From TrEMBL:
Designated name of the protein: Putative TPR repeat-containing protein
PROSITE patterns: TPR
Residue stretches of each TPR repeat: 613-646, 647-680
Biased composition regions of type Polar residues, renumbered to the chain: 294-309
Organism of this sequence: Coleophoma cylindrospora
Annotated spans, Disordered: 293-322
Domain of life: Eukaryota
Any one Pfam family match given in the protein's UniProt record, by short name: TPR_8
Alphabetized InterPro entries for the sequence: TPR-like_helical_dom_sf, TPR_rpt, TTC27/Emw1
Length: 963
């Protein structure tokens, strides 16, 4: 097909042309219908019917055949027909979102009648969405329109136009991301293990990055901000929090949006007397620069689409936020009013410094979404505790405190607040009830009597009972408003939010409510897991087996519900259902978990055509417990081959390789895990252990090779070099191990064992890496010192560190009051600060520590300090444990040594001059004689026949002679 003039245009430019395209007779009706949100009309026109007919053929093909399902002669032989297909695809996806996410109710009956059975066509559409053994929810209303949109943007245009439609590329990202989300929602609440869609999304995103963010890009600022927010939501879904944070920051930068989490004085509780610092988010959108004229494209966009000033006004139509109604907490923080109690300005941007917390300007819709994305990101990846909730909640509160500008944004803000408040006991009740109110609204807005009757195969109909009165038709927001920001919001579908509500009721202690929701949604895996959580394993097993097996009593048993009397004792031990039901790989895994039967996990792997890694991970765990490490390793290898992005699989594989001594395999496995998640301290620690073992192996090989070379005269120089380079250097491997342990210790800064590993490896370096030894020793003292005191000090490590310091030349530094002070940044300076500040305050019993401190003081020429240390060491040795040295020979030897050391210290330091010219200890001889006499007097009768006693007598005679 010839290149279209619409190719390689920005999304803004394409949509801006829709208003102009209304002037083209062939497009006027379809464009007008799309701009008015009348998607049903579009989905009934001739182009849509041809696409539906193609879809009926398309869903019959295998995944391998689908990409080549289209030929150049299909549909679009002109630019007009290309636009008709594009608009049809857009309408199909918007209709799907309206029917399943946003509302208002949409009736799509009779938009297409397949040649065969309608139910069979729907089932084929559902099956076409299966990826690697994971199925989507089987009761999605109007799934065929999603498949139509997916066919248009993910298969038709890439095939016909070669992916040159940039706008279709962006839509392909959106549809693939939504497809991945549909799979993730049915994968046990986690991201689907399939990497196929993830790779497709990442490929398109890389291409779009080059086009959208380039300096020559024709995309508006709003489009760029929306693009980054959509990327952030995709990465949150995929578990890539680092990339998500990066894109939230990019959205903030591109939009010029300023916000900061800070403190402001105020009252939180009704009984609070004084204003205390409260967390608050200050935020301000960038003001429009009137001097910069808008492009014609952007002006056309604002004229052709409902603008922010028109579309986003929702006076009287915003969803209702429930009150807290707590007897202690205020509905919102009561901030102090006086000007002197404004927030601290020093750390805030200039635009926020003069702002008061309770009088902030209105935010733009995309800026509100930025705050909600920030809150979602923090809530998803932060540990669940009250402190984190306090830091995250202000982001949602800032959006809710604004005047509602968009129905869907305000609904999402309520949802985000509900998720955050679920972590606190005083706000959990409102959290659940608010979530219930949102669910009621979504059900009411996506289903009425007509749609419920039309969707007999959709989500089972329920009696809508809402906490709040349903909005009237003229009060409810139109579909164009609800869909305006649906992509950057990434709002959940109806069944997803109902599932979330079920888990919320379960957390609140109402398992019955959770079960009712799961049963109504026919989420049998979740129903089984609920029963298992209350120790009803037999009931859980029965529910799972019913999905996988027929009853031995015949197919008539399928008509009964799970709680009917006829099936209460049914074992469902007939033949296996064929073909396997949707979600069967997951169900087989759950059955394997319940029965601890490896055949179930193997069956799951086979049904998924060897593409469901959860089955192999569970098999690996089972074999590990059984001690069959070879089979476990094989299972984890299969899991990593299918999904190389699961860091847990790599970690388990590395653990097994460590246990069997496969150091190279362990190193590779842990490195792969770190490439996926570089924030796991345990992985770094394990990598360090693997590298350390590899180092020992290399040393052994090096020694063995050296012996072989020495024993053989036939090995020439070239062969010797080859032997040396065939393996990495042990020194390099040890350095890598040290780096791994340091990184792990940095991430888990309160884990003293990892820091101890850092000290050990740094000491093994040749020469030892004393800065790392010092770093590790300081960390261990910080962690263990408060609990075990001086026992946290490794005497050998400290001795080696001090020995290294005192054997170095005194380079640089200065003399202060006669004492040498090493230069800043030197090892000596850091060691002295560590000893003075963190070790000396801990010493209470260990005299050997004072001996080391004495050496350091002598090195600094602090002779008075050195003598004081010797005296303290002597007193500890002689007074420890009630003079136990009078009975214990080893203790006596220690006292004798300490006394000799004190005499030597008095002899060495006593005559030294202080800075003022006086002696350090004028009466040092008397003091020395007195100390020796005291020890000899007490030891007489107990140790007078020992060598140590005679040594002290000799020292006393020397002192007398010197006098």
């Amino acid at each position: 097909m010839a290149a279209s003039p619409l190719e390689n245009q920005s999304w803004d430019a394409l949509i801006c042309q829709l208003e102009a395209l209304k002037e083209i007779p062939e497009l006027s009706d379809i464009v007008a219908s799309y701009l008015n949100g009348d998607y049903k009309v579009i989905l009934k026109n001739a182009t849509s019917q041809k696409l539906f007919q193609k879809l009926a053929q398309f869903v019959d093909l295998s995944a391998e055949q689908q990409p080549s399902a289209f030929t150049d002669g299909d549909f679009a032989s002109s630019d007009v027909e290309s636009m008709q297909v594009i608009i049809t695809g857009l309408a199909a996806f918007d209709a799907f979102l309206q029917a399943n996410v946003t509302g208002p109710p949409l009736v799509l009956t009779n938009i297409y009648t397949p040649d065969g059975d309608v139910a069979s066509f729907t089932e084929k559409c559902l099956r076409s969405l299966d990826i690697d053994g994971v199925s989507v929810y089987q009761y999605i209303p109007h799934v065929e329109v999603f498949c139509l949109a997916r066919m248009v943007f993910a298969n038709y245009f890439p095939r016909i136009v070669g992916g040159n439609f940039r706008d279709c590329k962006w839509m392909r990202v959106r549809i693939n991301a939504y497809h991945q989300r549909l799979l993730s929602g049915m994968a046990g609440g986690k991201l689907s293990d399939s990497v196929f869609l993830q790779n497709q999304i990442e490929k398109d995103l890389k291409n779009l990055d080059l086009e959208i963010m380039s300096s020559e890009s024709s995309f508006s600022t709003e489009a760029k901000v929306q693009y980054h927010l959509e990327k952030a939501q995709i990465y949150i879904m995929q578990g890539l929090d680092f990339k998500a944070k990066e894109n939230v920051q990019m959205a903030k930068t591109v939009s010029g949006f300023n916000y900061a989490l800070t403190g402001a004085l105020g009252k939180r509780t009704k009984f609070q007397q004084n204003d205390l610092s409260q967390l608050v988010v200050l935020a301000k959108s960038k003001e429009e620069d009137a001097a910069i004229g808008e492009s014609s494209n952007l002006t056309a966009l604002k004229e052709s689409l409902p603008s922010t000033s028109e579309q986003d006004k929702t006076d009287g139509t915003a969803p209702t936020a429930l009150d807290l109604n707590d007897d202690t907490l205020f509905e919102s923080i009561q901030f102090a009013k006086t000007s002197s109690e404004k927030v601290e300005q020093s750390s805030l941007p200039a635009e926020l410094a003069e702002m008061t917390p309770d009088n902030q300007p209105q935010l733009k819709p995309l800026d509100q979404i930025t705050l909600l994305t920030e809150a979602t990101l923090k809530d998803t990846y932060s540990p669940l505790d009250n402190l984190n909730s306090e830091e995250i909640l202000p982001y949602a509160v800032r959006v809710l405190s604004d005047k509602p500008t968009n129905w869907q944004i305000y609904t999402q803000a309520l949802l985000v607040r509900s998720r955050i408040e679920s972590h606190r006991s005083r706000t959990q009740e409102r959290s659940v009830l608010q979530l219930q109110a949102i669910v009621d609204q979504i059900i009411a807005d996506t289903e009425n009597e007509e749609t419920a009757a039309a969707n007999a195969d959709g989500i089972p109909q329920i009696q809508v009972t809402s906490f709040l009165p349903r909005a009237k038709a003229d009060e409810s927001a139109p579909v164009t408003e609800r869909l305006r920001y649906i992509y950057p919001l990434h709002s959940p579908t109806r069944w997803e939010i109902e599932t979330e509500l079920a888990f919320a009721w379960s957390s609140a202690g109402s398992l019955v409510s959770a079960l009712e929701i799961f049963k109504r949604l026919r989420l049998w895996a979740e129903v089984a897991l609920c029963y298992f959580s209350v120790n009803q394993e037999e009931k859980a097993r029965q529910i799972v087996r019913r999905q996988l097996y027929y009853s031995s009593k015949g197919p008539e048993m399928d008509k009964y519900g799970i709680d009917d009397e006829e099936v209460v004792k049914e074992q469902w031990d007939g033949e296996m259902r064929t073909p396997p039901p949707p979600h069967s790989p997951r169900l087989w895994c759950i059955l394997g978990d319940l029965e601890q039967d490896p055949e179930c996990w193997k069956r799951s792997w086979e049904i998924s055509k060897n593409r469901y890694p959860r089955a192999q991970r569970t098999l690996g765990e089972y074999y590990t417990k059984q001690g069959d490490l070879e089979s476990a390793r094989e299972a984890y290898m299969k899991a990593t081959v299918v999904n190389r992005q699961n860091d847990d699989s790599w970690n388990r594989l590395g653990d097994i390789d460590l246990r069997v001594g496969n150091w190279d395999g362990a190193i590779v496995a842990f490195q792969q895990s770190i490439m996926i998640d570089e924030t796991d301290a345990k992985t770094y620690n394990n990598l360090g252990s693997a590298l350390l073992s590899k180092h020992a192996e290399l040393l052994h090989l090096q020694k063995a090779n050296a012996q072989d070379i020495k024993a053989s005269d036939e090995i020439d120089d070239d062969e010797e070099v080859a032997l040396q380079v065939s393996q990495p250097s042990p020194k390099d491997v040890l350095r890598q191990a040290l780096s791994a342990f340091k990184r792990g210790a940095t991430l888990a800064h309160d884990n003293w064992k990892i820091w101890d590993n850092v000290i050990t490896i740094a000491g093994r370096m040749s020469p030892p890496s004393f800065p790392e030894i010092l770093l590790g020793l300081r960390a261990v003292l910080r962690i263990r010192g408060p609990s075990i005191g001086e026992e946290a000090v490794d005497i050998d490590v400290l001795r080696a560190l001090i020995t290294e310091v005192i054997t170095r030349d005194r380079d640089g530094g200065e003399m202060v009051a006669g004492i040498w002070v090493p230069p800043r940044g030197s090892l000596a300076r850091a060691t002295i600060e560590l000893v003075d500040a963190e070790i000396v305050p801990l010493i209470t019993k260990r005299a050997e520590l004072w001996a080391l401190v004495e050496k350091l003081a002598m090195y600094r020429r602090d002779y008075a300090g050195a003598l004081a240390c010797a005296e303290k060491s002597w007193r500890m040795a002689t007074q420890s444990e009630g003079e136990k040295w009078l009975e214990d020979v080893e203790a006596w030897k220690g006292v004798a040594t300490a006394t000799d050391g004190l005499v030597s210290a008095l002899e060495n330091y006593g005559p030294m001059e202080r800075n003022d010219g006086t002696e350090v200890e004028k009466g040092w001889k008397t003091k020395a004689r007195s100390a020796v006499r005291g020890i000899l007097g007490k030891a007489k009768g107990a140790w007078e026949d020992t060598e140590e006693y005679e040594m002290l007598k000799g020292r006393l005679d020397e002192l007398k002679a010197a006098a």
